[in-house]
Amino acid sequence: MRVTAGTHRGRLLSVPKGDRIRPTSDKVRQALFNMLMTYNLPAAATVIDGFCGSGALGIEALSRGAGFAVFIDKDISTARANIDSLKLDTQSHLIRADITHIGRKPDTLQPAGLVFLDPPYGQDLLPAALDTLASGGWLENKALAVCEYGQGETIRPPAGFTTLDTRRYGTTNLAFLRYGHA
Fold first, then answer.
1. 141 pLDDT exceeds 90?
2. β-strand 112-117 against 139-150: which pairing, if any?
3. Shortest CA distance to 147 belongs to which of 44, 49, 69?
4. 126 — alpha (psi -120 to 50), left (phi > 0) or beta?
5. Could you give all domains of the chain from N- to C-terminal order, each with its CATH number?
6. Where are the alpha helices (DSSP H) in the chain?
7. What is the mean pLDDT of residues 23-39?
8. How many Cα atoms are found within 13 Å in the side-chain-facing hemisphere of 90?
9. Which residues lie below 8 Å from residue 155, measured CB to CB, with a gap of 6+?
10. What's the pTM value of the predicted model, to 2 decimals?
11. Residue 4 CB: number of other CB atoms within 10 A?
């Protein structure tokens, strides 16, 4: 797996062995970031890469101009290795936690304007993660949340989120949600 564009284009990313992690494919990441350009993102944004796994989405955002990325997962070892290998540690903060129960945002971190959530498929974790991020002060008003989910699944955004668009790429679905007030 490689970074598809930006300052780190072509750089290899480590992926955990086994089927526990299902990284977003290069093709889907490329399409996702092409879509984000219509929202003028990730330019200088603070980004959250939730259920980060390898950290590919947050790293791709940093490579394409995001200002800072927060990586959250129960196991951050692969994301940490990728961040270290690309020397992105000054633009990154890693949190080892269950994002569905993360609590309040630390005062030392800025609220995010862009969020990537790519949970394990079939476990209906997106509504809880979105709700926790919103109630914990992790999101700025008008933040864009990009949620990945599997074929045959649907997403039920919690209160405060509006679906802007959905896209399907093979067995991968993406929902673009806006948080807050216009």
1. yes
2. parallel
3. 49
4. alpha
5. 27-114+129-179 (3.40.50.150)
6. 26-36, 56-63, 77-85, 126-135
7. 88
8. 1
9. 126, 127, 147, 149, 163, 173, 175
10. 0.94
11. 20
